[in-house]
Amino acid sequence: MLRFNKKVHTILAAILLLAFCMPASAQPSSVHPNNNQWSRHSDYSSPVNKPKISWTVPIDDNITNMVIDSKGTIYTVSSSHSKSRLTAVSSQGKIQWKAELESKGRDVVLFRDNMLIVSGSSNEDGVSSTLSAYSTEGQLMWHSTFPGVDNFGQGSIGVDDDGMFVMSGLEANEDGNQDIAIIAVNTLGGTLWTQKHQLKSPHTTASSPTVVKDGIYLTVSKGKSEQISKGASTIQYDDGRLLRLDKQGNVVWSRFYHGYHLASPVYTQNTLYVPAGKHLYLYDLNGKRKQKIEIEGALNNWIGPSIGKNGNIYYGQRMMEPSGKMLWSFTPFDIPSSNEYPTNTVAIDNKSNVLYGYDSLKGKGGGIISANSVTKKVNWKLPLYQSLSSPPVIGKDGTIYIGGSKLFAIKAAK
């Protein structure tokens, strides 16, 4: 079901359509348009010496993701138990506008520097998933609802250069099994197609889609119940598949592998990096498996790998060579005397410095750490004294943005 906001006037829709139909080359270049289709290796540098907090902005809810436009404006999507909102903050730390979301916000992407697409989920009147579009001035342009589709674990949005937005979710069918639903929407909020992928299992998982060139890639898995003790059982997911769909939603091919993971495949340097539990699989875009890497150490099924421009892999609390050989354990979680652990994906600046947020097991709140992946030494550690829920993002001027219930801007100390 597609529901348009009644306030959208015909003249505004015509203007927006003209703007979004302009060639991508005519649009300003966003500093950071999305997180999902990104190797996490930034084009910008970050402070090498211990920086300072330049400003903080209370957001109240927990920030899940953020994007930055060509003017340096930061747009955050945040959620709490009772509400969600989209917030625009200037590079000077001033809130420009807030928009209350009609569903629990999951992800935000910035299309052609002037259109914000927000994914969400709702449990009111039954489970549903949503996609909404806002202008960069905060005006709701359209809101699309997909009843019966649960994207709680798959909230990230895939986007192509022409303005096709793709998300995935789970949908229960009449025989008690869960299907994988993949939905594509255009820049006016119209549904282009819906694809159902059946695994014939009541226990299924799926990643969010990643759009690369003329293909849409995501992983799906099915599990089975296994008894672990008398009266207790668990679901084991060991039947995973990497799918490639074409731009019309048709399955082009499927590749089997062992394991599962909720993070999207990461694409860079003509390679898809597919996390799958204790393994990381590398495929080319035609589905040929190039490599299988065994991962040691603790893993989080929500956090995907980060890939450096030299091919080094940052995943599973380790830095590895492209061959899979471990080079360095870069998180404080591996220090026996430490009570800190990483909270999200790693960002890498253009000088191979690694940035990651951490939290404390002792309840002291979190902070951010910068480490040099070449020397394998920590550059600095900056406590922020609150739980962090977003990955770090580097601005064009080297400012680091990271957030929990506050948005922090961290700059080089003068």
UniProtKB/TrEMBL annotation:
Record-annotated Pyrrolo-quinoline quinone repeat domain positions: 83-254
Pfam families: PQQ_2 (PF13360)
Signal sequence, start to end: 1-26
Name the record gives this protein: PQQ-binding-like beta-propeller repeat protein
PANTHER family: CELL SURFACE PROTEIN (PTHR34512), OUTER MEMBRANE PROTEIN ASSEMBLY FACTOR BAMB (PTHR34512:SF30)
InterPro entries attached to this UniProt entry: PQQ_b-propeller_rpt, PQQ_rpt_dom, WD40/YVTN_repeat-like_dom_sf
Keywords, comma-separated and alphabetical: Signal
Keyword Nuclease: no
